[in-house]
Amino acid sequence: MRLLSFTVKGSERVGVLIGEGRILDLAGAYSILFEHQAPGLLYNLKALIESQARGLDLARLVETLSIKELKANSPLGERLVEGAVFSFENVTFNPPVKGPGKILCMAVNYWSHAREMSTEPPESPYLFIKLASTLVGHKGSVIIPRGAEKPDHEVELAVVIGGKGKYIDRGKAMDHVFGYTILNDITLRGRQTPLKKGARLGIRWLPAKNFDTSAPLGPIIVTADEIGDPHNLKLQLKVNGELRQDGHTSDMIFKIPEIIEAASEGLTLEPGDIISTGTPSGVGAATGKFLRHGDIIEAWIENIGSLENTVFYEV
Ligand code: MG
């Protein structure tokens, strides 16, 4: 399934993609099909993920019945078209998971990116944190803070955790994955370096990677069963149509099972948590091309889709 979160007529909804740019509102469709108020998990994708198989089974049922009625052009199908089918132009996209418990991100996890930065990869997965408050949805603005220097883009495959776990063995790690989406790890290179004094405190992850809107996410979560091998996907990033990053997830230094194993060492992963798996080469830090006011950034991953955001310099 290809799931997303959106707002229409002031109401937050969970949708499923049923065609190019066409969204089925699951709660709306449920009400039309069953003439009954939809359960809460059809209004909140995080709640749906937390409900485990129950939520997905229900979502699949609503999708299947709706598509049947839509194809038949039945009276019920007509009511679905009127009340529960929306085009991309008519909705506001939300980050697919609202308020995830944590967003963990991999540093230097593509060989191509390590080479372009002349950085030796770490010997084990190196994770840092992005706060839930940094999220912004598809088509939202990336707001560059006042005085910030060298804002940069990083297209990344993001894993959405479905099954809770601690000390997860890499052999069982993929059982904990709900699906995959796109994260653009926006970074202020000018604030990423260590301070002159206290350099031993290291890279400044907080100001460089945790300003408001520094984590565009979504719009679609593709469930794990529809992705197949997540280490066999092309990923690209364009700025104003110009190709800046062009990579492949097979180039990851640490693969997803190993990352999940490392992330869950003493830390419980929970449904809705996001783990972003690092970026391939082509970032501004290597090319010297940083983000400018008005730029349109499009992060794309094969079989998932595009995440588009506009850069806005705060004054
Ligand atoms: Mg990154």
Please characterize this protein's 3D structure.
The chain is α+β, with helices and mostly antiparallel strands. It has 2 domains: 2-93, SH3 type barrels, CATH 2.30.30.230; 103-313, Fumarylacetoacetase-like, C-terminal domain (Fumarylacetoacetate hydrolase, domain 2). Helices cover 23% and strands 30% of the residues. Strands 1, 2, 3, 4, 5, 6, 7, 11, 12, 15 and 18 form an 11-stranded mixed beta sheet that branches. A 5-stranded mixed beta sheet has the order 9-20-19-16-17, with no helix packed on it. A hairpin with a 2-residue loop joins strand 1 (2-8) and strand 2. Helix 1 (26-34) packs across helix 3. The longest helix has 20 residues, at 53-72. Magnesium ion is lined by residues 105, 154, 156, 185, 278-279.
Short description:
The protein has helices spanning 26-34, 45-50, 53-72, 75-83, 111-116, 205-209, 224-227, 256-263, 284-287, and strands at residues 2-8, 11-19, 22-25, 85-87, 92-94, 103-106, 127-130, 135-136, 141-144, 151-152, 155-161, 177-184, 187-188, 215-216, 221-223, 234-239, 242-248, 274-276, 296-301, 305-313.
